[in-house]
Specification:
This protein is α/β, with parallel strands linked by helices. It is built from 15 helices and 12 strands.
Length: 454
């Protein structure tokens, strides 16, 4: 019997004649043609395109204190509290950074979580990530957290090779865990680990359908976090599952009736597609994209939270209350107070992101910053464009550096042909004529300027 019903999303009669059942296979489906392991993974196309369906409400969630701490020296309690305060400040009163998640295993993490809760902020809401045991559920409930992440790996790589289970055994185990979570008075957030290598119709959709049944019966919302654990997701239209980001999001909505507000994308950057995959998830129906500050995370990192701030602003035409200048404050704090070295070419936060070394570029910047600066970085990020001085900087580069320095001192600018510029440029030229190969440091430039300008 074919099921024809009026969609509450498209307001059209839609026909869905097939209900996907769990396929409890004897041997794991590893998609070897797509993931040969001894060769580069393959991107296969089947040319099946799905409609865009961007939700009205899209937002960011944060994993800085969870995934973000798995690849660096852990933050201290005080650092975690301060970063949480900065996340609140960045996200604004409308809660664009809706949630952030914590570990609860160590005393330090629990203490940080409790201190953050004492601040009383509505946003970001504090959630947790725990092992799927009743003991951990009770621990989280006693702290006062209302939502927790639960790991429910969904590829056969994990089900067969990591856990040694069949698909049916895995599904039964996960359903029991989710039921225990609800019984403990918590909202489950199910982390569909390794979804981009999973049998979508043979396991993912049947499992998601079961979760939606439990949600309806219990009245408890169950969130699904689609985890691109290895960064295999692909944003291009017409890509075959399981690698298609749009296909995954559409499929979870269309075949499992998961509402947008319960759909979240968690991506990694192994193939340089972290940001574009997260944006694709937004565009095809997920309300939330899960990120970490500066992209710090497992292996190549997570989706950088600051990147999605600007993706949102680009897509919607406004920041919806986010304070973008806090991004620079966060980057400075993490680098200076926690000992993390930000790669200098990192967009928005790296030392070189709005810096030029070429004299011809500096000359253009002096005439009009828009020529070589991506946007008004001083207004938007509280980070004015910079130049560094090398053998290619020329008179223009030296003049630009001097005028940025004078502006900080509250002193008037000088012209490119000012004698001071000529003298300092001559000194720079002499440095390289004598064999120097390193850049001229800011301290050296300041010393030269002070010689000639009181």
């Amino acid at each position: 019997m074919q099921d024809i019903k009026l969609s509450d999303k498209t307001y059209k009669l839609e026909q869905d004649p097939y209900i996907y059942q769990l396929q409890d296979v004897e041997n794991p489906e590893l998609f070897r043609e797509m993931f040969p392991y001894t060769e580069t993974p393959k991107i296969a196309f089947n040319y099946r395109k799905v409609p865009e369906n961007m939700p009205e409400d899209i937002f960011i969630t944060d994993t800085t204190f969870r995934d973000g701490q798995q690849s660096r020296t852990p933050y201290t309690t005080e650092q975690m509290v301060h970063i949480y305060e900065l996340l609140h400040k960045l996200g604004g009163e409308k809660g664009m950074i809706r949630q952030t998640e914590f570990f609860v295993y160590s005393e330090k993490d629990r203490k940080a979580l409790e201190k953050c809760m004492e601040l009383g902020y509505q946003f970001p809401e504090i959630t947790t990530w725990i092992r799927a045991t009743k003991k951990d559920f009770e621990l989280v409930k006693s702290i006062g957290v209302k939502e927790t992440g639960v790991l429910v790996s969904c590829s056969d790589y994990h089900i067969f090779h990591k856990m040694g289970l069949t698909r049916q055994q895995a599904l039964d185990k996960y359903v029991s865990i989710v039921s225990d979570c609800i019984e403990a008075g918590l909202r489950p957030r199910c982390h569909f680990e390794d979804i981009t290598r999973a049998d979508f119709y043979g396991f993912v959709v049947p499992f998601a359908n079961k979760l939606m049944e439990i949600s309806k019966e219990s009245g408890v919302p169950i969130k699904i976090r689609a985890c691109d654990t290895m960064g295999f997701g692909v944003p291009y239209p017409g890509v075959a599952l399981p690698r298609s980001v749009s296909g995954i999001i559409y499929g979870l909505q269309h075949y499992a009736d998961v509402p947008s507000e319960m759909l979240e994308w968690h991506g990694h950057n192994d193939f340089y597609k972290g940001v574009v995959n997260a944006t694709t998830a937004w565009m095809y129906g997920a309300s939330a994209v899960n990120c970490s500050l500066l992209g710090i995370g497992e292996r190549t990192g997570n989706v950088p939270l600051e990147a999605m701030v600007f993706e949102y602003a680009s897509l919607r035409g406004h920041t919806n209350g986010m304070n973008t200048q806090v991004i620079t404050e966060i980057a400075d704090y993490i680098q200076n107070e926690t000992g993390y070295d930000i790669p200098p070419m990192t967009p928005f936060v790296g030392e070189n992101f709005n810096l030029t070394r070429a004299g011809i570029h500096a000359d253009g910047m002096m005439k009009n910053q828009e020529i070589y600066n991506i946007f008004d970085t001083e207004t938007i990020l509280n980070c004015p464009p910079k130049v560094s001085i090398t053998n290619t900087s020329g008179m223009a580069g030296v003049a630009y550096w001097i005028n940025r320095y004078l502006a900080k001192q509250g002193k008037p600018e000088i012209a490119k042909n000012d004698p001071v510029v000529e003298k300092i440029y001559s000194w720079v030229t002499a440095q390289y004529d004598e064999g120097r190969i390193t850049i001229i440091s800011d301290a050296e430039m300041e010393e030269q300027v002070r010689k000639y300008i009181d």
